[in-house]
Amino acid sequence: MSADIILEARELTKEFKGFVAVDHVNLQVRRGSIHALIGPNGAGKTTVFNLLTKFLPPTSGQILYKGEDITHRAAAEVARSGMVRSFQISAVFPHLSVLENVRVGLQRKLGTSFHFWKPESTLYTLNDQAMALLESVDLASFANSKTVELPYGRKRALEIATTLALDPELMLLDEPTQGMGHEDVGRVVELIRKVAANRTVLMVEHNMNVVSNLCDTITVLARGTVLAEGPYGQVSKDPRVLEAYVGSTEEESA
Q1: CA distances for 53 relative to 58, 78, 93, 225, 231, angstroms
Q2: Per residue in 119-129, pLDDT tens?
Q3: Residue 219 is part of which domain span?
Q4: d(CA 120, CA 128)
Q5: Tally of structural domains, the chain
């Protein structure tokens, strides 16, 4: 495995009661890149993502992270090693403040994540670090707001901030612009571009405009197999990709 490959799938396969959802998928994600998984409805994108992030066990195949076999490791163990995932739905604590949400992510570094008997004041040492993260995602002015009151696009930005709090080497973003209006999409695209400056990003995305403007490499899935791979300019002209999308410019999420 080349040193510039941070994540690799080899012949990754997943069957559900005889149905092959992912069929011998090979994938390599290069360090420092923004890599997208795309494909029409039912292509297997979300299943591949769940396999890579250890939320599903593969039927067969191998997953390597930083050269180590993680095929049978638990999701939490993989996350602690620097591979951190966000989800399609917002996964923040709605009734905590924006600052408190980020502080929860930072708390892991103190080794006090389960010290429920300690007063909140013991976490105040994390406030400056939390505010710096909020600044990085343009949420500093919302620090004391209840998360439940945030607009949807801002909640997704907060989710990225809480992911960054875990100091990931590899960020996996699941449909980061799903359900957003044009203005929010633009804000999140720029945010992803910014946070990817010093890390690797693998994302499942349905918005082709986002993919074309943001991603270095695109892997196109169809019926659980890799249909094409390369930069957007290459895959967007591939006859097999055009056929899979049946002329559509924007896919539905898997």
Answers
A1: 11, 8, 22, 18, 24
A2: 455 567 889 99
A3: 1-72+173-180+206-254
A4: 15
A5: 1
Q: How far is the C-alpha of 125 from the C-alpha of 181, rounded, in Å?
A: 36
pLDDT over 80 at 118, yes or no: no
Residue among 200, 115, 201, 130 at smallest CA distance from 165 = 130
Question: What are the tokens at 84?
Answer: 């951190």
Q: Would you say residue 59 lies in a domain? A: yes
Q: Does residue 77 sit within a domain?
A: no
Which CATH number is 11's domain given? Answer: 3.40.50.300
Distance CA 250, CA 182 (A): 14
Quick one: the chain helix, strand, coil %, rounded to 5? 40, 25, 35
Q: pTM for this one?
A: 0.85
Average pLDDT, the chain: 87
Give 144's Cβ-side CA count (13 Å radius): 0
- The residues pairing with 172 across neighbouring beta strands, listed in sequence order, are 85, 202
- Cα–Cα–Cα angle for 146, 253, 47, rounded to 5 degrees: 95
* Distance separating alpha carbons of residues 160 and 171, to the nearest angstrom: 9
List, in sequence order, every residue forming a beta bridge with 226; answer none if it has no partner: 221
Give the model's pLDDT for residue 251. 43
Residues 6+ apart with CB under 8 A from 172: 49, 52, 53, 83, 84, 85, 86, 201, 202, 203
Encode pLDDT of 11-29 as tens digits: 999 999 989 999 999 999 9
In a domain, 156, yes or no: no
* 164 occurs within a structural domain: no
Of 159, 249, 15, 41, the C-alpha closest to 150 is 159
Place of tokens 């791979």: 229
Write down how long the chain is: 254
